[in-house]
C-alpha cells in the first residue's frame, strides 16, 4: 500500500505502482477539489475501485448536479484506460 498526499493506492493482484500513472493523469485533469474527494484507489482484479468522501461528494453533486458525477466518472475511466482496463466503480466511503 502506498500513499500520495492523502490518496491511498492499493492492489489485490498487481503492483500498486501501476496506479501511479493513473494518479498522474487524474492530477492533470481534475481540480484540486475533485482530488480531495478521492480517499483511495484500489486495483481489485482489474476493476478500479475509487473510494470517495461521501459527504463531500454528495455536496458536490447537490451543488453541480448529476452531471458532476458523470464528468468525474468519465475522467476516472479515461485514466484507467492507461492500463488497458475499463471497469471503474465509485464507492462512497
Question: What's the arrangement of secondary structure elements?
Answer:
Elements: E1 2-4, E2 7-11, H1 20-29, H2 32-37, E3 38-44, E4 47-52, H3 54-64, H4 66-80, E5 87-92
Parallel strand pairs: 2-3, 4-5
Antiparallel strand pairs: 1-2, 3-4
Gist?
The protein is 45% helix and 29% strand.
The proportion of strand residues reads 25-35%
What is the typical, i.e. mean, pLDDT?
91
Strand order, largest beta sheet: 1-2-3-4-5
Indicate how many domains the architecture comprises: 1
Described by the principal axes of the CA atoms, the overall outline is globular
Helix content: 40-55%
Structural class based on helices, strands and sheet pairing: alpha/beta
Which stretches are poorly predicted, pLDDT < 50 over at least 5 residues? Answer: none
* Largest β sheet strand count, sense and barrel closure: 5 strands, mixed
Structure notes:
This protein has a 5-stranded mixed β-sheet with strand order 1-2-3-4-5. 18% of the residues are buried. The mean pLDDT is 91. The chain contains 4 helices and 5 strands; from the N terminus they run ββααββααβ. The protein has one domain (2-92). With 93 residues, the chain is an alpha/beta fold. Strand 3 (38-44) and strand 4 form a beta hairpin. The longest helix has 15 residues, at 66-80. It has helices at residues 20-29, 32-37, 54-64, 66-80, and strands spanning 2-4, 7-11, 38-44, 47-52, 87-92.
Amino acid at each position: 500500500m502506498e500513499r500520495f498526499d492523502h490518496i491511498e493506492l492499493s492492489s489485490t493482484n498487481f503492483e500498486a505502482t501501476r496506479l501511479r500513472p493513473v494518479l498522474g493523469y487524474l492530477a492533470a485533469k481534475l481540480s484540486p477539489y475533485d482530488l480531495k474527494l478521492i480517499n483511495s484507489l484500489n486495483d481489485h482484479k482489474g476493476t478500479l475501485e475509487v473510494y470517495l468522501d461521501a459527504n463531500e461528494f454528495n455536496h458536490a453533486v447537490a451543488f453541480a448536479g448529476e452531471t458532476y458525477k458523470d464528468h468525474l466518472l468519465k475522467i476516472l475511466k479515461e485514466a484507467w484506460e492507461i492500463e488497458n482496463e475499463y471497469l471503474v466503480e465509485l464507492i462512497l466511503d
